[in-house]
Design goal:
six-stranded antiparallel beta sheet, about 120 residues, single chain
Length: about 120
């Protein structure tokens, strides 16, 4: 069974967002990394890019598949997890500690349309 964490929001496309102040920390769920298998590459966006909710911002590739990443929120990318460039497998080791991007939130009310842990667990069953 994949791990789902309370206190963060989930998109039905399997990204999560943890909010700290006006910053959304975004990664992929444990369910997503399990489904992909061994991750061998993470295509990261550039800092300073504007992204919109639902918009593709990168991709993760595993030995068996590639999966686009979709932003659960709109805003400006203020940081990328550059460790993933040389160690993409960090996501397999802990999908919730190894975030992909940090975004300055443009519209915090977008979080209201995301799933809580219980609702996300239901779609993963």
């Amino acid at each position: 069974m994949s791990k789902v964490i309370e206190g963060i929001k989930y998109a039905d496309s399997h990204e999560w967002v943890k909010v700290e102040g006006n910053v959304g920390i975004i990664g992929i769920s444990d369910y997503a990394q399990h489904s992909l298998g061994d991750i061998v590459y993470v295509d990261l966006p550039s800092e300073g890019e504007e992204i919109s909710k639902g918009e593709e911002f990168g991709a993760v590739e595993s030995v068996k598949a590639a999966s686009d990443l979709y932003s659960p929120v709109s805003g400006t990318i203020i940081e990328i997890n550059s460790a993933l460039e040389s160690e993409p497998e960090l996501i397999n080791q802990n999908a919730y500690e190894n975030w992909i991007i940090k975004v300055e939130l443009a519209d915090p009310s977008e979080l209201d349309s995301l799933l809580d842990a219980a609702a996300y667990e239901k779609i993963c069953e």
